[in-house]
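Input structure tokens:
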């Protein structure tokens, strides 16, 4: 099957290292973002840079000051507030030091424990490093029946004893209440960071950023941006992204049909209504589903294409698809067997 001699394991690992591929994330598949692209959470970004990034990026300074990355960091916040984006930004910034655990790892779960184990081992080998468990509340919920919860706690204890304090665990969660109490209470979470809905200046900054990518004819002047920002109270960063897309479609539609064009601000204000109406539909569907099955968390119940469901799986796929270290090593092992 394979051409030439089988690769020497050490040489292969060296190749991975040299090419910043020790991480289980294929950066080619992860949208390039920077922490500073997130608006209205400057305090959270500063804390992440000081407590997580700096000890990993600046070995000399870390040694001089005896800095260690925090053991456990919790990023808590409603959907669409930039939690997964923090993971994307850290993946790009820390490259081989970044390890992702997300929903894709659990899906079709036969080899799940093996893969999880490999990721934790790789993170320890590459310490100081980060393990980023995205939507950990969902993962823990799903794993309840599978013993995942106990398994993760055991691995976490292993991390602590094996390379004390040198692997930083970042958990994201919408619903902190469904995290295992043992995890939250144990003192593993040393830093709790709240991601939140953007306030008006942050919404204006997000809209301005999104509009900078639009064709010149579609950009809003500063007072237009302020007007839309004022009309979007309660919307998340993700909602604002959708709003700009919807506004674009409305303008394109009128252009295509030769309708007289309205001002750009009007298109965006119309889009605010659509986004709000959609959110209401989802919220109603969710409430109905929760009434039927009260013990299940809300985001499972938006079955059949609800926002949250798509959100969770969509992100997980875009972020981690097929890029698991365990996956490629399994394949290599398979090749060895045949060759
Ligand atoms: N504060 C923010 N500033 C700029 N963009 C944001 C902000 N919050 C969310 N977004 C954007 O919204 C989208 C969804 O964010 P995401 O990180 O997936 O949210 P979460 O994981 O919290 O549900 C991303 O494109 C992200 O860049
Ligand atoms: Mg997310």
């Amino acid at each position: 099957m394979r051409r030439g001699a089988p690769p020497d394991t050490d040489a292969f690992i060296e190749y991975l290292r040299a090419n910043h591929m020790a991480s289980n994330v294929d950066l080619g598949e992860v949208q390039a973002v920077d922490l500073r692209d997130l608006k209205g959470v400057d305090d959270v970004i500063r804390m992440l840079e000081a407590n997580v990034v700096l000890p990993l990026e600046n070995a000399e300074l870390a040694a001089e000051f005896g800095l260690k990355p925090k053991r456990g960091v919790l990023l808590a916040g409603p959907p669409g507030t930039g939690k997964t984006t923090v993971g994307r930004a850290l993946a790009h910034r820390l490259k081989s030091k970044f390890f992702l655990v997300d929903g894709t790892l659990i899906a079709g779960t036969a080899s799940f424990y093996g893969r999880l184990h490999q990721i934790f081992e790789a993170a320890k080998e590459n310490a100081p490093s980060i393990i980023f468990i995205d939507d950990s509340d969902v993962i823990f919920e799903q794993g309840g029946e599978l013993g995942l919860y106990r398994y993760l706690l055991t691995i976490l204890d292993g991390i602590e004893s094996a390379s004390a304090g040198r692997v930083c665990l970042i958990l994201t969660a919408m619903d902190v209440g469904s995290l295992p109490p043992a995890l939250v209470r144990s003192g593993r979470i040393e830093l709790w960071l709240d991601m939140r809905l953007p306030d008006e200046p942050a919404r204006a900054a997000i809209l301005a950023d999104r509009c900078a990518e639009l064709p010149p004819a579609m950009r809003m002047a500063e007072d237009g941006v302020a007007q839309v920002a004022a009309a979007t109270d309660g919307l998340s960063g993700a909602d604002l992204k959708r709003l700009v897309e919807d506004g674009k479609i409305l303008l394109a539609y009128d252009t295509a049909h030769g309708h007289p064009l309205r001002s750009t601000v009007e298109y965006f204000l119309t889009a605010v209504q659509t986004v709000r109406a959609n959110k209401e539909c989802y919220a109603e569907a969710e409430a109905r589903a929760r009434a039927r099955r009260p013990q299940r968390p809300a985001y499972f119940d938006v079955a059949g294409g609800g926002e949250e469901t798509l959100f969770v799986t969509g992100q997980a796929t875009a972020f981690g698809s097929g890029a698991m270290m365990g996956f490629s090593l399994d394949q290599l092992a398979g090749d060895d067997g045949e060759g």
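The chain has two domains: 9-196, 200-292. Residues 83-84, 134-135, 315 surround magnesium ion (ligand 2) (CB under 6 Å).
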